[in-house]
Design goal:
homodimer, 359 residues, alpha+beta, Hypothetical Oxidoreductase Yiak, Chain: A, domain 1, Ribosomal Protein S8, Chain: A, domain 1, Wheat Germ Agglutinin (Isolectin 2), domain 1, 3 domains, three-stranded antiparallel β-sheet, globular
Chain lengths: 359, 359
């Protein structure tokens, strides 16, 4: 049975309010959680509420954050998230990047002392209504081994770019710098299937197709898979995201990113504060007339959409097509949650006496 | 027999002067050609002089360009390269990005009406001495098929990031958004070897390991190789580079990028002017004290360099290590050129009566 957007929104915001966030902040965060569900990226959706709940239980989330700008120029800033739920510093930072772009042409914000913020694409897409290109990156808990390394040193470190068009829907790329996300490991394990090769390695750095290898000190591989197929380029991408998000802001980098699950202890060594993000906003008319650019983007999109499909495939996709089509469908049909997720949410619902289960 | 840097520099600059460029511009371009040789990226080195020579023969290069800024804000600009050799607009644009960053914190330049500029890393690295992060991208002739497509629609569209450190050498990533570059196809064909899978497809979009498939209407695959291994992410990266370089500047995008070889005709359809690049410069102290950042970069680099190697490997590399070590070695030992390249250069040398062959 699918759940309605409205019900899950009220539920999510209600839980955050019970934790101690104010209503405005809770609604803002709920919107990001639910955007992931609508776009069909349920791995980053309401299931993550449990992670925050557990972190809240052990007092690792600041409920009354003083998010502030610690350094700035006309086109840049560093923001300190004051150790709260990642959506709040992320929204603050992207809004700041957009504001700076209005004045200086572009705005760039590196954010420290934050935590998991949901889907990167959400923040990049905030730029679209301002006729700007939006950019967002974040580092994350170490799961990925650099090329030639046996150790997990980087997160799945996603990159998002949102670029406006005129009559066509916008170009929205939002992707981890690994071949697959962690959810695919869990799913293969649940189904009793092998993972296939090119995704993971064991604790000594040898190729592995075991979907539970991450729990056995194994690690994920960067985009490219192995050196021969360009994994050093995926490693470069993950490293760039880590440096722009964490070294530039003063957050913890690479292997020192704090775990986003309460059952893992806070690390002894710190190289900065919390987790880091990076945001960019570029005003189109800082380069050319916005309407002309958007018309050209329509032409770009149409050209690529009309490329000849490979044998056995129906059509060539534009980045963002799948998620946009998901959103249209899921808004109509409702949001399906896995039984395991429902069970977790019910526990939290009971704990706070917030109603859950209306469809 | 290796050639000395000095000899090949004088030769390259000498040829460009004979073509009709002034001495200052010729020296600037020769430095970029030779930088590729020193860094061991000979596919983008002096061998490309033949391409320009052939384009010059048919009058496709403007020898007296008026490179100009056509639009700007405090942190952005669009530059028109006036249809000349790519190095000149690229150097002009990156210098402009650096100048803008000095005033506004960051500088971003999108450049149209240019041509092949050599190695992207050269321009990104220009930012380092200013305590800035340097970024460079370019589009290129269409060789790469988007995921699910049978048609080559994108170039190998490289991305370069140069990030300064304190006592450690800088982080310099410079990579095509494909698993391998075109040179690997040529090399495998020459050796009579199969290419392996994950690199190319035939004209119908079926996997191919034929190293001469590009001459049979086949195409290269994006980083990731196939959809299962994340080729849609490589496609996203190539598309982002194309849009930032060409749509934002008003250059030709994707399949309409003009061929960089004289034997291919100029395309009937144009979507802009020439080929496009994108440049960025970010002043470190627009985010935090530069010396503190660079110390943290030392820590980042040391942490990753000391990661435990995978079984069978000696060490974990930092982006830029291989090219820097090449440069030290090649400066000492001299530059080796393939016999085929030497033959081509000798033809050009004879044509212009510029001496070639001193070692």
């Amino acid at each position: 049975m699918p759940y309605s957007y409205e019900h899950l929104f009220e539920f999510t915001s209600g839980i955050l309010i019970k934790m101690g966030f104010n209503k405005t902040d809770s609604d803002k965060c709920a919107k990001v959680f639910l955007a992931a569900e609508l776009r069909g990226i349920s791995t980053h959706g309401i299931t993550r509420l449990s992670d925050y709940y557990k972190l809240w239980e052990v007092g690792r989330i600041n409920l009354k954050p003083q998010i502030k700008i610690v350094h700035q120029t006309p086109s840049t800033a560093v923001v300190d998230g004051d150790s709260t739920i990642g959506m709040l510093p992320a929204l603050f930072s992207m809004e700041l990047a957009i504001k700076k772009a209005k004045d200086a042409g572009t705005g760039w914000v590196s954010t420290r002392n934050s935590s998991n913020f949901g889907i990167a694409g959400y923040y990049a897409m905030m730029a679209l209504e301002h006729d700007m290109i939006g950019i967002c990156m974040t580092n994350a808990s170490p799961l990925v081994a650099p090329t030639f390394s046996a150790d997990a040193m980087l997160g799945t470190n996603p990159i998002a770019f949102a670029i406006p068009a005129l009559h066509q829907p916008p170009f929205v790329a939002d992707f981890a710098t690994t071949p697959i996300n962690r959810g695919k490991f869990t799913f293969a394990a649940m189904m009793g299937e092998n993972l296939g090769y090119g995704f993971a390695q064991d604790q000594f750095g040898n190729p592995s197709d075991d979907p539970s290898i991450l729990e056995k000190k194994g690690s994920m591989l960067p985009l490219g898979g192995d050196r021969e197929h360009g994994s050093h380029k995926g490693y470069c991408l993950g490293a760039i995201v880590d440096i722009m998000s964490a070294v530039l802001s003063g957050a913890n980098f690479g292997p020192f990113v704090p775990p986003m699950v309460a059952y893992l202890p806070v690390l002894d060594k710190k190289t900065g504060e919390g987790l880091g993000h990076f945001f960019g906003a570029m005003r189109i008319d800082a380069f050319q007339e916005a309407s002309h650019f958007k018309l050209k983007m329509d032409e770009w999109i149409t050209t690529f959409r009309n490329a000849r499909p490979a044998e056995g495939y129906e059509r060539v996709l534009i980045p963002g097509d799948v998620e946009r089509e998901n959103e249209i469908r899921i808004r109509k049909e409702g949001i399906l949650l896995k039984p395991k997720v429902v069970d977790e949410l019910k526990l939290i619902a009971d704990r706070f006496a917030v109603p859950f289960g209306k469809s």
